[in-house]
Amino acid sequence: MSLLLEDEEIDEYRDGSVRLRNPNIELMDQDILYHLALGSGSHDLVEMFGDIKFVCMGGTPKRMEQFANYIMAEIGHKLPAGTTLLDISQYSYRYSMYKVGPVLCVSHGMGIPSVGILLHEIIKLMYHAKVKDPVFFRIGTCGGIGVEGGTVVITEEAVDDMLNPYYEQHVLGQKVHRPTTLDRQLVRELKALVYSDDPYDTILGKTMCTSDFYEGQGRLDGAFCEFSEAEKNEYLAKLQEAGVVNIEMECTAFAALTHHAGIKAGVVCVALLDRFKGDQVCAPKEVLNEWQMRPQELVSRYIKRYLQRKGRLRTTDSHGSMCVKSPRRFKLVQQESENYE
């Protein structure tokens, strides 16, 4: 049996509040966000995160620390004297999270399971912090389909490896399909921020999400490969004909879960190679580092434009310092996060 969850508008969420769609949360004494080392009973989440407007996610802790420093310089954010950027989730040992004024920068790991866990807890974090109308971005890397390395791709539609525009999850023995809807207006606004003198191409297209890096993406260089190079290229040509311009491993879960929560979201990635030309990334490290900055630059332009319009550039405020409500519960959350598997 398969359950397809249709798009819907609910009046009670039109004030910009984040949708949890879980009545059990309100009945809990406290909600421990195990993988972020935070809790609704141990931390003052409104004080810590209530001013968040943008949540930017990327695969690795290092990349998101780099983005946190980059966006801090771009928006002119100043840390309070004597402070440095703090990894708020350092005691989780799973994800890293940095707060730069209204921007939250967090690593999501690799693949749908990792980004799915993070999204559940980040969405709950936005709910507990009473954040209104947040915008989520996934900033990452991908393989291009007929797209040269260094090209930036703004995802118009996220599809799975069967080209379905939904995210399939098994819940209580049933297949649940959630639409992978991304905000079309956000896509248009991002494309409008592409500069004519950018030394690289920025394109729109479908992004295919897989649950595997090797066989699931038609690679010839995994431990197992039971297809020929000709069959691989025939498959890539089929994807290209369907409008797919890149492949990655998180976009369907990212798009579906943010949409289900009523959150505006976008995906911006840079291609590290054209999969028609090979499977292994051969560009020099310094070139790859420059390429990986390109999605960050585009998302930064969007954030800067918004903050300029709101008069919120060049501020000195919270940098994610801990606001503990209960020292006992704070210690408990740390212990639970360290031990939780």
Automatic annotation (TrEMBL):
**GO biological processes:** nucleotide catabolic process; uridine catabolic process
Cited InterPro entries: Nucleoside_phosphorylase_d, Nucleoside_phosphorylase_sf, Uridine_phosphorylase_euk
Q: Which residues bind phosphate?
A: 94, 138-141
Pfam families in UniProt: PNP_UDP_1
Q: Residues in domain Nucleoside phosphorylase?
A: 53-304
Q: Which GO terms describe its cellular component?
A: cytosol
Task: Return one GO MF term.
Answer: uridine phosphorylase activity
| Residues where substrate binds | 217, 219
What family does this belong to? Answer: Belongs to the PNP/UDP phosphorylase family.
Q: Which PANTHER family match?
A: FI09636P-RELATED (PTHR43691:SF11), URIDINE PHOSPHORYLASE (PTHR43691)
Q: What is this protein called?
A: Uridine phosphorylase 1-like isoform X1
> What organism is the protein native to?
Ceratosolen solmsi marchali
Q: Which gene encodes it?
A: LOC105361772
